[in-house]
Amino acid sequence: MRPKQPRKRRLSVYLEPNLLVALEERAARRDHSLSMIAEAAVAAFLSPDDGERREAAVAKRLDQIDRRIARIERDQTIAVETMAMFVRFWLTTTPAPPEAHAGAARAKGLQRYDAFLSALSRRMASTTRLARELAEDIGSSGPTVDPQG
Question: Which superkingdom (predicted)?
Fold first, then answer.
C-alpha cells in the first residue's frame, strides 16, 4: 500500500495587475492552470541551484560568443594578410610606366580605381561573398597538385 501524499495547501497572494496578466497569458499559452505556473515559479525561485543553472547558461553563451569572436579575428587576419601579400606581389612585379605615358597611366589608374570601388560597393550590397565563392571553387575543383613539385 502506498503512503498518502500530503494534500496541497491553499495560499492567497496579491499580485500587481500586469504580473497577473502575464501569469494568465503564460498559463493559457501552456494550457496549464494558474496554480501550476505559480507553483513552478515559486519552486524555481526557492531552488538553491537556480542561480547555478543561470550562471552555467550564461557561461555557455559567453563561451559560444568567445569562439565566434576568435573565428572572426582569424578570418580578419587571413583577409589582411591576403591583401598585404597581393599588394606586395603586385608592387614588386608590375613595372613602372615610362615617363612619356605616366599621365595616361595615372588617368587609366583613376578609372580602374573608380571601377573597383563600384564593384566593391555592388559586392558588399549583395549576399554573396568572395570567400564563399572561393571555397566552393576550390571544393569543386579538388586540390591542385603542382606536377613539378
Answer: Bacteria
